[in-house]
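Thread: Newbie trying to understand structure tokens

Hi all, I'm a second-year student working on a class project, and my supervisor (Dr. K.) asked me to get a predicted structure for one chain before our next meeting. I've only ever worked with sequences, so writing a 3D structure as a token string is new to me. If someone could post the tokens and maybe explain what I'm looking at, I'd be very grateful. Here's the chain:
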Amino acid sequence: MAAAVILAGGLSRRSGPLHKACRKIPGDARSWVDRQVDRLRDAGFAPVMVVTGYRPRRVHHCLHRRVSYRHHFNASCGPFSTLQRALQGLRGPLLLVQTDTVLPSLFDLHRLRRVMQNKLVAAASLVNIHGRGGHPLILSASWARQLSGLSWRSTDARLDEQLSFLPSGRYIRLKGSRHYSFSGLNTQREWHSAHIRARRLP
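---
Reply by user tm_fold:
Sure, no problem. This is what the structure looks like when written as tokens:
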């Protein structure tokens, strides 16, 4: 069984008083993070965990689903340390989702899970038609353990850096069945665009 982690550890400065996780799509009473949890569960990911860092109360306020919850008290150490907090104690493949990720269709989420059946693959992500995006990202259990063992003080303690070190064939980039952009929800314009994309997702 593959778990899923929603990373909500950032400051979310650009989203204003309303945290990204709390935004809603017109016509949908659910908060953005509730919508993410529902989609991940429908795709068969369990458990679903939410990891907070800065401003955790704002995330709690808009989370109305029962999930595993983990708080990173040293979020000031950086996003990689928050990722390592999420990885602690988890077994099996793990799907990483940022709070500003527009989740793809159930079909594409299932594709990501199937890729992990190949024991040589360390990580896989979905990209758009231009090869950009990279989220959500699924990690093999063995590679997640390697990431947990790195020092967050290291100069290469960045997830994108660690992905670049993987040899060909160990990091798989799948093109989404429908070409959505999977990240970048900070400005009002980006959220408006995301609302349109999210309404079209099955």
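A couple of things are worth pointing out once you decode it. The mean pLDDT is 84. The two ends are 23 Å apart (CA to CA). Feel free to ask follow-ups in this thread.
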